[in-house]
Amino acid sequence: MPELPEVEVVRAGLERHVVGARVTGVDVLHPRPVRRDERGPEGFAAALTGRTITGARRRGKYLWLPLDDGDALLAHLGMSGQMLVQPADAEPEKHLRVRIRLDGAAESRHLHFVDQRMFGGLSISTGGAELPPEIAHIARDPLDPLFDDDELVARVRRRSSGIKRLLLDQNLVSGVGNIYADEALWRAGIHGERPGERLSRAQVLALLGHARDVMRDALAQGGTSFDALYVNVNGESGYFDRSLHAYGRADEPCDRCGTPIRRVAFMNRSSYFCPRCQPAPRRRRVVAPVAPPD
């Protein structure tokens, strides 16, 4: 699944190529990607046609393109969604689901929503140009200038859940997906099952800093590319997977200490960590109550 850096790469590409363009027509080639739009495929197309794209924004893994009427085109890439800017005469991709014809886009290009698995989707968010109400509940991400470090620290240290689970909680912090959580935890030397309430303020802040560093490094290289289906707005894959220290490296030596990286099941996915650099938390001893004397 594309994570925050991948989505930010796509957002930046859309900002360069489609902002200022007017939508001249929309072809919905499969109804599933617009299933969240209550207008249906025809209503979705009608609501978007004639509008001008005024920006490209992101909250966590959601993208939206503000429109000149105050609405927004809201997008989520799901497992395999791609937002591709293509020449007007380009051959349609095998899994092209929605074609948005543009006038005024860079180099006379059109916007294609391609999605093999169709877990992603598009919808028109009424009044959502500033922030679509559908995603207002999602927390800011660590790269957001308005992210509140102190609030996150306080909320994490009140929780008994494992820190990796907390990093993936979109109500606490958005955009830190499975790959980057594992990488940040490796850099911080913290096991993912360590309860939030057993971390110090300094540890949470250090972990947050590592998460930011990991995501900035990924942004600089175009994101990760474990899934061949992920490409950026120009159809180019990212290369950050070559620099990963933990994720996907089961049984390979840890770059820090040489101990084989371990893989364990986690929330229908996988977690990767170094058992030496990231020791598992000790279980708290439960002292049985002493029965009163007879």
From TrEMBL:
Catalytic reactions of this protein: Hydrolysis of DNA containing ring-opened 7-methylguanine residues, releasing 2,6-diamino-4-hydroxy-5-(N-methyl)formamidopyrimidine; 2'-deoxyribonucleotide-(2'-deoxyribose 5'-phosphate)-2'-deoxyribonucleotide-DNA = a 3'-end 2'-deoxyribonucleotide-(2,3-dehydro-2,3-deoxyribose 5'-phosphate)-DNA + a 5'-end 5'-phospho-2'-deoxyribonucleoside-DNA + H(+)
InterPro entries (UniProt xref): DNA_glyclase_Znf_dom_DNA_BS (IPR015887), FPG_cat (IPR012319), FPG_Glyclase (IPR020629), FPG_N (IPR035937), H2TH_FPG (IPR015886), Ribosomal_uS13-like_H2TH (IPR010979), Znf_DNA_glyclase/AP_lyase (IPR000214), Znf_FPG/IleRS (IPR010663)
Cofactor: Zn(2+)
Enzyme Commission designation: 3.2.2.23, 4.2.99.18
Active site (UniProt): 2-3, 61, 269
Pfam families found in the cross-reference section: Fapy_DNA_glyco, H2TH, zf-FPG_IleRS
SMART domains xref list: Fapy_DNA_glyco, H2TH
Highest taxon of the lineage: Bacteria
Protein's UniProt keywords contain Secreted: no
Cofactor note: Binds 1 zinc ion per subunit.
Domain (Formamidopyrimidine-DNA glycosylase catalytic) ranges: 2-120
Keyword terms: DNA damage, DNA repair, DNA-binding, Glycosidase, Hydrolase, Lyase, Metal-binding, Multifunctional enzyme, Zinc, Zinc-finger
FPG-type domain sequence ranges: 245-279
Binding site for DNA: 95, 117, 159
Molecular function GO terms recorded: class I DNA-(apurinic or apyrimidinic site) endonuclease activity; oxidized purine nucleobase lesion DNA N-glycosylase activity
Sequence similarity: Belongs to the FPG family.
PANTHER family: FORMAMIDOPYRIMIDINE-DNA GLYCOSYLASE
Function: Involved in base excision repair of DNA damaged by oxidation or by mutagenic agents. Acts as DNA glycosylase that recognizes and removes damaged bases. Has a preference for oxidized purines, such as 7,8-dihydro-8-oxoguanine (8-oxoG). Has AP (apurinic/apyrimidinic) lyase activity and introduces nicks in the DNA strand. Cleaves the DNA backbone by beta-delta elimination to generate a single-strand break at the site of the removed base with both 3'- and 5'-phosphates.
NCBIfam families: fpg, PRK01103.1
UniProt subunit comment: Monomer.
Protein name per its UniProtKB record: Formamidopyrimidine-DNA glycosylase
Gene that encodes the chain: mutM
